[in-house]
Amino acid sequence: MTHDSVTQDSVILSQTRAGVCTLTLNRPDKLNAANDELLLSLTAELKKAEVDPAVRVVILTGAGRGFCAGQDLSDVSGRDMTFTEHLNATYNPLIRTIRTLEKPVISAVNGVAAGAGASLALAGDIRLWAQSARLIEIFSNIALVPDSGSTWFLPRLVGYSRAFELMALAERVDSTDALKMGLCEHVFPDETFADEVQAYAERLAARPANALKLTKQALNDALTGTLDEALDQEAALQQLAGDHWEHQEGVTAFKEKRAPNFVRAED
Ligand code: LHQ
């Protein structure tokens, strides 16, 4: 948490403040619909944030009134790639990068999230929505199947049948229903959304980074494994957490009846 920085790129804006890196999809005229440049830049920016010691938390959000309207449909005709090749080259590395990133990623859904944009909204470790945000598993409107992780994320959050219904009917979910269904953790007013998200992210940034990295790894592994595997994984990762200075600091702070300081220059 040593310096603040801003870098500007045509399709992804990056700003780091108080340990929080905000990556903003920046094609507002198209509701941040994704072309290859946007997807590859976003993945590259995430990888940069992962190794930047000034970054402890990453926010993904959109410029303008949309979060992400999915694949840019004006950018798909005349491609010399198959759908499979396209997904494997762009969307899938992005989703894998988010889920394996060794720092918390917040999907800050400021507006409509449709198609692969809905998948991106679901892929964050934490999902914060603006009141006017909505999510549409819109793929079936153009007779495609949900991709970019939606088939994995959505049924885990809302159950099989609700996921199937949302996908089959391409029904839009507003923020009130999203909160009830568990598609997001918090909804904030549009007017204060960016500030609320930053404040939330700064709370996360003050938490023990190593413990959160290991927690993310454990939870992601547990989602696909057995109880036995989870117990073994917890025992192994607990050793890594327990051997880290953060643990000493947490215990010492408890004994000294003070707040722990989990942010150190050497991190
Ligand atoms: C757009 C888009 C867009 C281009 C809004 N593209 N311009 C697919 C294929 C290949 C491989 C990989 O995976 C995928 C996965 C997918 O993501 S498939 C799903 C693709 N996305 C869609 O089908 C969504 C299309 N957009 C919409 O249905 C609406 O725009 C939504 C419901 C998102 C928002 O509606 P409104 O709030 O009424 O906004 P709008 O429709 O007026 O859009 C504003 C502008 O953005 C407009 O441009 P214009 O020049 O007329 O102002 C749209 O054309 C443009 N835009 N989405 N995906």
From TrEMBL:
<dbReference type="InterPro" id="IPR014748">
    <property type="entry name" value="Enoyl-CoA_hydra_C"/>
</dbReference>
<dbReference type="GO" id="GO:0003824">
    <property type="term" value="F:catalytic activity"/>
</dbReference>
<dbReference type="InterPro" id="IPR001753">
    <property type="entry name" value="Enoyl-CoA_hydra/iso"/>
</dbReference>
<comment type="similarity">
    <text>Belongs to the enoyl-CoA hydratase/isomerase family.</text>
</comment>
<protein>
    <submittedName>
        <fullName>Enoyl-CoA hydratase</fullName>
    </submittedName>
</protein>
<dbReference type="InterPro" id="IPR029045">
    <property type="entry name" value="ClpP/crotonase-like_dom_sf"/>
</dbReference>
<dbReference type="Pfam" id="PF00378">
    <property type="entry name" value="ECH_1"/>
</dbReference>
